[in-house]
Amino acid sequence: MTPTQQPTDTMSKQDRYACVLKQIAAVISDEQDMIANMANTAAILHQSFDFWWTGFYIVRGEELVLGPFQGPVACTRIKKGKGVCGTAWERKQTVVVPNVHLFKGHIACSSESQSEIVVPLSVENKVTAVLDIDSRHLDTFDDTDRQWLERITQLLMQ
Ligand code: SME
User: Fold this and answer.
1) What is the pLDDT, as a whole number, of residue 97?
2) What residue segments make up the domains of the chain, in order of their start?
3) Domain over 13-156 is classified CATH 3.90.1150.10
4) Nearest CA to ligand 1 atom 1
5) If both were cysteines, with which of 29, 119, 123, 145 could 131 make a disulfide (CB 3.0 to 4.6 Å apart)?
6) 132 CA distance to ligand 1 centroid (A)?
7) Cα(108)–Cα(125) distance, integer angstroms
C-alpha cells in the first residue's frame, strides 16, 4: 500500500475528494476482493467527511443486502424499487436526496439522517451493488459529490 496525502480540515470539497480518490486507488490497487475493497472504501470516505453513515448494499437476487459499512446499525435488506437505495438500483442512476423527509418511500434506518446520496455500481449495465451515504444535515450532497463518488465507484469496478 502506497502512503498518500491525508485530507486536512481546510481543504475544499473538491480537494478532499481528489485526496480520497488517490487514497482509495492506492488501497485497492493490490486487492481483487470486492468486499475487502468496499470495506476500505467505506472507511476512507467515512473518515474523510462528516458523514453519518457510509456503506454498500449488494444485489442478491431481487434484494439489496447490507454490505461493508461505517456508522450505526442499518437495515439489512431492501427490495428493488424501494427506498433511495432500491430506487437508484431500479433507475441505474445516482439519486441525490436533499431532504429525506420529502422522498416518498425513504427507508429511515436512523432518525438522524437528513440527506442522502446513493450511487449504483454496474457491470455491463447491470447493477451489482450501491454505495449509500447519509448525512445528519440537510442538503449535504450536490453535483460535486455525485461526480466524485461516481468516479470512486468506477474505480472499484475496474
Ligand atoms: N435510507 C436508505 C436505507 C439505507 S440506510 O440509509 C443505511 C433508503 O431509503 O434506501
Assistant:
1) 98
2) 13-156
3) no
4) 107
5) 119
6) 7
7) 28
